[in-house]
Amino acid sequence: MAPPGPPVLLLEPGTAADLPVPAGWTGHRGLDPGDAPWDLAERPTLCIGVVDEDAVGPALELVQRGAALAVEVALRAAARHRFLEDLHKLGARVTTDPAVLQRDPALPPLQQQLLDALAAGATVTAAADAAHVSRRTANRALADARTLLGVDTNAAAIRRWRAVHPG
Fold first, then answer.
1. What SS3 state is found at 103?
2. What is the per-residue pLDDT for 167?
3. How confident is the model over 29-51, as pLDDT tens digits?
């Protein structure tokens, strides 16, 4: 199962300029990330702006690169439909619920314990032993954690988890 794509929050017209950047995100006003590296998922990036005819391409590229979007969609009719369809094809989680930008996923204690052990340098086998679960159960729990955190690897899950829960 592929991890969910970056979130895309659809904003009401006129609200993008006033949207505060939620905790845990590197905020960027506009749909041009500037000199940022290609992979924007490694450093949780939220681009806030308005998608009009000129911004469709840059917005879709940002999603492909792993950035989250909080956007007003100024497109109408077929153009709006095509844009939203393209977001879904890219695997983006498109919603109007601001909770999608919450960077503190509620991981179950086992997943937290396993990620903390891996971050401290333990192997999956050692982390499973310390948690008193089988390696298979640990791998399943880590797979669920990766899905919740929206990443593909244990290393990326550790980085994402540590970004929200340092130490």
1. coil
2. 55
3. 999 877 777 887 777 889 999 99
Report the alpha-carbon distance of residue 155 to residue 160 in Å, rounded. 9
What percent of the chain lies above the pLDDT cut of 90? 50
Query: Tens digit of pLDDT for each residue in 110-155?
Result: 998 999 999 999 999 999 999 999 999 999 999 988 888 777 899 9
d(CA 67, CA 87): 12
In whole angstroms, what is the distance from residue 18 CA to residue 16 CA? Answer: 5
Give the integer Cα–Cα distance in Å for 36 and 91. 22
* Cβ atoms within 10 Å, residue 13: 9
Residue 1 has a pLDDT of 42
CB 65 within 8 A of CB 39: yes
Q: Would you list the DSSP string of 7-61?
A: EEEEPPTT-GGGPPPPTT-EEEESS--TT--S--TTTTEEEEEEE-TTTHHHHHH
CB 96 within 8 A of CB 9: yes
Q: Which residues pair with 71 in a beta bridge?
A: 10, 49
Residues 6+ apart with CB under 8 A from 145: 107, 111, 114, 115, 157, 161
> pTM for this structure?
0.63
> Distance between alpha carbon 161 and the CA centroid of its chain, in Å?
12
